[in-house]
């Protein structure tokens, strides 16, 4: 039997945390959520600093480790250290960039772009396996539905628009005209539903996730935490960084994640995807969807 890799151990730990999340105390839930959302920082930071960032007592992290079956904090942290060591080239450098905070004053535009770069680096480094798993799930599903509301809607619409170019049957659950409940009646067992939401989580997104589970659908969650309400109901979870210096969460990393997901799906579909995308483009041009410019480009 092949020995478990560090990533297998980390994946098993995440599965364990999700399975026990509802039974954990509020302090333990806060600690577990921080571990799941900041694995790179856990690997390179002290227990005291992790506790401070998670807003829990250091002793709570020790007890959480023991409740999860470890002798103590060092044994739990070792899982995160091994995960970091086994990562791709440049992984540790990305972790250092994420853990550090710029101390210099920056103008607003520079600050926004700096935060977005960190969001993209964090989301990319944490989701190679998650994106692969989500692509497998969607490719195998007989039908795919996508849902995202309020601030998450642009991410959902991007996924719907791009994926539909190679798979015309993809449906957007928009609830337009107050018909969301009617849309959910169409869900069938075995289909896939992608639910996109981040804090504060929209009630519609949670309704979609619950309805999908009840209908026997497979759920892919794209959210800001592995412990978010949608992620806890999901078969596959993609965690995106939504940090922003402004008053609203960022969607940049979320858009990058769904673009990456579609790239994987196109690559796996092969010639069939190329044919479908070519047919869609030809039809759009024939219908006058693109303006003609002086250089002949659309």
How is this fold's topology laid out?
Layout: H1 6-20, H2 26-37, H3 39-44, H4 47-54, H5 58-67, H6 73-85, H7 91-99, H8 108-126, H9 128-140, E1 144-148, H10 153-166, E2 171-172, H11 180-184, E3 192-196, H12 203-215, E4 218-223, H13 229-232, E5 236-239, H14 252-269, H15 271-286
Parallel strand pairs: 1-2, 1-3, 3-4, 4-5
Helix pairs in contact: 1-6, 2-4, 2-5, 7-8, 8-14, 9-14, 10-14, 14-15
Top keywords for this entry?
2 domains, single chain, Arc Repressor Mutant, subunit A, 298 residues, alpha/beta, Rossmann fold
Give the low-confidence spans: 1-7, 101-105
Q: Radius of gyration, rounded?
A: 21 Å
Give the H and E element order: HHHHHHHHHEHEHEHEHEHH
Distance between the termini: 56 Å
CATH second-level architecture of the largest domain: 3-Layer(aba) Sandwich
| Estimated share of beta-strand residues | 5-15%
Question: Could you walk me through the main structural features you see in this protein, from its secondary elements to its overall organization?
Answer:
The protein is of the alpha/beta class and 298 residues long. It has 2 domains: 6-85, Orthogonal Bundle (Arc Repressor Mutant, subunit A), CATH 1.10.10; 128-285, Glucose-6-phosphate isomerase like protein, domain 1 (Rossmann fold, 3-Layer(aba) Sandwich), CATH 3.40.50.10490. It is 59% helix and 7% strand. It contains 15 helices and 5 strands. It has a 5-stranded parallel β-sheet, with helices on both faces. The longest helix has 19 residues, at 108-126. The N and C termini lie far apart (56 Å). Mean pLDDT is 86; it is low at 1-7 and 101-105.
